[in-house]
Amino acid sequence: MTILSFFTRASRAFNGYPSSSKLLLLCTLSLSGGGVVAYSEAQVDASKTSVQVNEKDCKKKRVVVLGTGWAGISFLKDLDVSAYDVQVVSPRNYFAFTPLLPSVTCGTVEARSIVEPVRNIIKKRNGEIQFWEAECMKIDAANKKLLCRYTVENNLVGNDEFSLEYDYLVIAVGAQVNTFNTPGVLENCHFLKEVEDAQKIRRTVIDCFEKAVLPGLSEEERRTNLHFVIVGGGPTGVEFAAELHDFVQEDLVNLYPSVKDMVKITVIQSGDHILNMFDERISSFAEQKFQRDGIEVQTGSRVISVSDKEITMKLKAKGEICSVPHGLVVWSTGVETRPFVKDFMGQIGQANRRVLATDEWLRVKGCEDVYALGDCATINQRKVMEDIAAIFKAADKDNSGFLTVEEFKDVIDDILERYPQVEHYLKSKHLRDVTDLMKDSEGNDIDEVDIEGFKLALCQADSQVKNLPATAQVAAQQGAYLSKCFNRKSKWKDNPEGPRRFRGSGRHQFHPFQYKHLGQFAPLGGEQAAAELPGDWVSVGRSTQWLWYSVYASKQVSWRTRVLVVSDWTRRFIFGRDSSRI
């Protein structure tokens, strides 16, 4: 027998054996010079395996995720990627812990301590996730395609544009800063939405101090350079003002003693109070603390223009217009929809809306197989009065035209889940149960109610419908919820778990998204913070600041960032903040 025929028969004989057996063959044959032939056989098998894997992947539904913020990363971390062909598109190849951006502006925390590379996150998943560092320029809803572009400016060769097809699209791109078309804002203001924004603010703050101590400047010019203006009295603006005050008082006044009495921090708020989305006790505490710290708070003021030297505003109480010189302006007044999302909204009949609308399952209205999470979308909660007749008919099992308490109880759970505003209404009226609504005009219990009485009982519930805030907490919960829905798609297709369909038959496939508020913090500087906790609890002071440290450390996306953030806090306590302009 020739050597060639021997290897041919050996190849056929071992063709059906597992790879471990073939590896043993490779080791044995290499001792007699047959390693090349054995390697060739292994390569053929590998190619067969690759073809089989590719054929298997082709059968998977493709899920394209736009964005690597809170919503996108929460979705990816919990998604069963073995069931889908997952592709991620984002102009940033990292996830940023945005609640700590104000700390980055003053060097309390370093920028790299709050970011985690996306590829570090996706490599830990059992399955393959493809990531493309690019920006989505257009969504073609009709053909289920995306046009993307690599936006980093460099001299690298190759085409910057490419397209992607999708079966499911998850839009989690967040929102951009809303300037309200105020003249001069884009050209002369700093923003605080991205890590790059925080780094730019940090450099500018140092520039203001360095310029102020130069010889030859008048006192007025020094004061102008050291006047820091924050437009917007929300959590971001207030926290930045507090961080900046601590940076100045704890570090910079020791480095620039000649101008320590010329620094001024002003917060401009169009409303009557800062932190007006918090409990009024927190808002009052914050205003009092800022007054003690020397931070000027101008409420009832609307900015009408910003130049490179002055900021002009209108005082609502007096109707007067005044201009104030500034060295730095940080604009933190709200967000608006990104341009390509606006274009997408026009394609699906939402052109007249300000924000992309979804249903309670986070599905974009007017577009199948597209979901939207986080700041770029809002849930359009269905009104209970729109379905009041269908609810009554479904509950009235004997078709008597009247609804008994027992019949009402049979649909209570489905009503509360499908229309969460009903539960909010009960709490606002201090009612223990929905059946407490079944009372006559004098407040007495009744045994049954007709359709008009049923409408009267629930007509006020829709007044409790509220939009969810544009916060990291909401986005993270939505991402985790949607990933669970995707993981259960095949399981619950024939066995739906959601509430009853009052219009139609059967049940909804999934439970609708329900936001659970876990509380919110407002660091106020000087190692003091305020917190609004579940159950109408309010906490302020130093102990709350340490609670803030604990929560924010535990919420880091990885142990790497957790260690870096805690070490930055420790470094700041020991050595102070770094004032280098880097």
Automatic annotation (TrEMBL):
<keyword id="KW-0496">Mitochondrion</keyword>
<feature type="signal peptide">
    <location>
        <begin position="1"/>
        <end position="38"/>
    </location>
</feature>
<dbReference type="InterPro" id="IPR018247">
    <property type="entry name" value="EF_Hand_1_Ca_BS"/>
</dbReference>
<dbReference type="InterPro" id="IPR045024">
    <property type="entry name" value="NDH-2"/>
</dbReference>
<dbReference type="GO" id="GO:0050136">
    <property type="term" value="F:NADH dehydrogenase (quinone) (non-electrogenic) activity"/>
</dbReference>
<keyword id="KW-0479">Metal-binding</keyword>
<keyword id="KW-0274">FAD</keyword>
<dbReference type="Pfam" id="PF22366">
    <property type="entry name" value="NDH2_C"/>
</dbReference>
<keyword id="KW-0999">Mitochondrion inner membrane</keyword>
<keyword id="KW-0576">Peroxisome</keyword>
<dbReference type="GO" id="GO:0005509">
    <property type="term" value="F:calcium ion binding"/>
</dbReference>
<keyword id="KW-0521">NADP</keyword>
<keyword id="KW-0472">Membrane</keyword>
<keyword id="KW-0809">Transit peptide</keyword>
<dbReference type="InterPro" id="IPR036188">
    <property type="entry name" value="FAD/NAD-bd_sf"/>
</dbReference>
<keyword id="KW-0732">Signal</keyword>
<dbReference type="Pfam" id="PF07992">
    <property type="entry name" value="Pyr_redox_2"/>
</dbReference>
<keyword id="KW-0560">Oxidoreductase</keyword>
<comment type="similarity">
    <text>Belongs to the NADH dehydrogenase family.</text>
</comment>
<dbReference type="InterPro" id="IPR054585">
    <property type="entry name" value="NDH2-like_C"/>
</dbReference>
<dbReference type="InterPro" id="IPR011992">
    <property type="entry name" value="EF-hand-dom_pair"/>
</dbReference>
<dbReference type="InterPro" id="IPR023753">
    <property type="entry name" value="FAD/NAD-binding_dom"/>
</dbReference>
<dbReference type="GO" id="GO:0005743">
    <property type="term" value="C:mitochondrial inner membrane"/>
</dbReference>
<keyword id="KW-0520">NAD</keyword>
<dbReference type="InterPro" id="IPR002048">
    <property type="entry name" value="EF_hand_dom"/>
</dbReference>
<protein>
    <recommendedName>
        <fullName>NADH:ubiquinone reductase (non-electrogenic)</fullName>
        <ecNumber>1.6.5.9</ecNumber>
    </recommendedName>
</protein>
<feature type="domain" description="EF-hand">
    <location>
        <begin position="383"/>
        <end position="418"/>
    </location>
</feature>
<dbReference type="GO" id="GO:0005777">
    <property type="term" value="C:peroxisome"/>
</dbReference>
<keyword id="KW-0285">Flavoprotein</keyword>
<keyword id="KW-0106">Calcium</keyword>
